[in-house]
Amino acid sequence: MTLRDIINKLLGRQQASASTARERLQLVLAHDRSDLSPELLDQMRQEILEVVAKYVEIDMEEGAVSLETEDRMTALVANLPIKRPLPSLSSSTDD
Amino acid sequence: MATNTRIILICSGKGGVGKTTLTANLGIALARQGVRTAVLDADFGLRNLDLLLGLENRIVYTAQEVLEESCRLDQALVKHKQEPNLALLPAGNPRMLDWLKPDDMQRIVAMVAEQFDYVLIDCPAGVEDGFKNAVSASKEAIVVTNPEVSAVRDADRVIGLLNTHEIKPVHLVLNRVRPKMIASQEMLSVDDVTDILALPLLGLVLEDEQVIVSTNRGEPLTLTGSNSPAARCYSNIAKRMQGEDIPLIDPAKEGSGMRDKFRRLMQTKIF
What we know:
Chain A is an alpha+beta fold and 95 residues long.
């Protein structure tokens, strides 16, 4: 955030358009590069959550799966807060 | 045969970002440095390189007749009068698009490369057959883009395709840069674009009305020895291509008045 952004925010003005352009580009390029449509990404996110939920209890509300891009490398980033391991699984490993 | 001929594709994906203008100006600038340079119009559908170079009335044969073997290559090459180190191989009839294949393009570029140190290929816009033909004959590439979302997005797509065709190296030219708009943060900065596209920057070209004047006349800025902002940028790029170490213009540091200093202060990153 730059000095101008802060002043704009204080005055309730729209932020300068260059940062909007940057954010929009980063998002659209992450999708272009992975060749995944938003629907497919959503489907994948759902399936990843289901698989993980088989092993640990996760916070479905907080979980996020997104595409991030840096230096022409696109990464699938999953951030899934774990509440606790599933009781059925942990008891079997205790034996 | 000149085996170390540099065969450079000048491409952008999006149309109208300045491929042909860059090709014409670099062609002249390189020729003025004494290297034998050929510019090849690979935009068979919408050819314009002849017009920007002011050679439109001197075309007799084109790439089409050379490929059909109804003329020799040197009959088709149009030598620039003021800059004899530069020659244009004009694009043929748009109907060529019906039969032209990557093999044809490779054949004609190989013929041209025998006689020149540089072959600059003016690529058509888009990523379809015209682009694929041109890529197949190229060794390296310059991607031209503007600091605008659509141009950067299309450039990114083209860079991906150049990578799959194993074109190396690929350099970036950022065209139509407006320092004042960057300063007021209403235009993507040079760093924004190079970060997003992750390509080494060969140079930037400042927005300049003289470009339009020069195309009206068919005399590229680098030909007339103009000292306008874009002319300096183009010749700097040509010098860097020849290995000279010319520092980049920093658009943020253009201008030294109070107003410019204030603009720079407003750009300071706080967090």
